[in-house]
Specification:
There is one protein chain. With 114 residues, the chain is α/β, with parallel strands linked by helices. Helix content is 34%, strand content 16%. The protein contains 4 helices and 4 strands, in the order βαβαββαα. The protein has helices at residues 27-43, 59-65, 94-98, 103-112, and strands at residues 2-7, 48-52, 68-71, 89-91. A 4-stranded parallel beta sheet has the order 2-1-3-4. Strand 1, helix 1 and strand 2 form a beta-alpha-beta unit. Mean pLDDT is 88; it is low at 15-25.
């Protein structure tokens, strides 16, 4: 089983608060995204499991567990992937994210599965 980690926070920077950005208001969307993605992965019988990042966007922790990374909108320039392979990172666009349109994510995961 492959693991896709959904990252919804930007990489912490010196001088910024280390608490999750979307802890109260935004976490609902990420939880719905992970639930819907896992449902569709099961329906398509794909060997993936989506999990919500709990490391506060720490790429060192994420890289140890992730076979792929899925980023919510707005993280293209705010999440530092370090040396993680770029071809294993998917950035959701706003429309797909808010409407839970996951076809592009599923196609991406199918293409890179081990």
């Amino acid at each position: 089983m492959n693991t896709a980690i959904v990252v919804y926070q930007s990489t912490p920077m010196f001088g910024r608060n280390m608490l999750p950005n979307n802890a109260v208001i935004g976490n609902f969307n990420q939880t719905k995204l992970v639930t819907q993605l896992n449902t569709e992965l099961l329906e398509r019988n794909l060997p993936w499991e989506a999990v919500l990042d709990d490391s506060i966007a720490d790429i060192e922790v994420i890289a140890q567990e992730a076979d792929a990374i899925i980023c919510v909108p707005g993280l293209q320039k705010l999440f530092d992937i370090g040396n993680y392979p770029k071809e294993k990172v998917f950035y959701l666009d706003s429309l797909d994210y808010h409407n839970l349109q996951l076809d592009k994510v599923l196609t991406f995961l199918e293409a890179i599965q081990h």
